[in-house]
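Aggregate trends can hide what the representation actually does to any particular protein. This step matters because it turns folding into a mapping between discrete strings. For completeness, the protein is quoted in full, as a sequence line and a line of structure tokens:
=====
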Amino acid sequence: MNKQDGLAEHFNSHRQHLQSLAYRMLGSSNEAEDAVQEAWLRLNRSDAEQINNLQGWLITVVSRICLDQLRARKPAADDVVLDLHIDNQQGPETELLIAYSLGPALLLILDTLSPPERIAFVLHDLFDLSFADIAPIIERSEAATRQLASRARRQVQGASSSRQDDTHQQHLVAAFLQASRQGDFQALLSLLHPDAILRADATALKITKANQAKGAPQFEAEMSGATKVANTLKGRALGAMLSLVDGMPGATWGANGTTMVAFCFGITDGKITHIDVIMDRARLESMDIRPIEQESAEAAQGIQA
């Protein structure tokens, strides 16, 4: 084996790790591959025998290549370091939030960070490099690097918490629909705020009144109280589908591919505070309605429990 083959073998032993690192930094597998390939070209042009720590050298080179690419995407003003309080405590809850955000969702959050923030966060929080090692890569002091990572971490945690809230609200609506289908009055009460309000628009009032003999619910323009709301909707959601209504968890019912009614939920502190029944055609057509194909039965049961 000649020197070139030996160098290629050593490089390939680190390739997967470098590819993963570059992907987290850039959010694009093609760009990550290009960054790793550029690192290989630079290694070939270097005096490889003088490199004492090949992995460290490669991580530094790939990180700088990624940093240059990120800076090319964003205005230079994004590199400004704000003087923010640094919280060095990272307990299990923080680790869980960061772990929860791994994958495509994390990449969306990382896109909101400045290039130095992104590099500092990825290298420290996801790849466990020390701030002393990261600082020279982004050309900051160790203290400034720590500050950048801390700021990025807070943004990741905040976005993760928001996604968790959205998921919980979706499960809450799914649990409500399931309880309604099953006619489970006590489960409905447990999901509703004691002062919950049910409102129906003029079209809903007209249509349901005309179909009372067919078992349509007896809506009012506004009714309040969990007991009254639960009694009105008990056994009524047989054909309703969990949906996103203008980006919020809700429910819809339709026929022949047309949405006929939308149920918009208001949720505060884990309880349903109001439900709006919309049947006005013009308003329905103005809404962004996206059915969620599969509801999480286990999650719904867990919330009811």
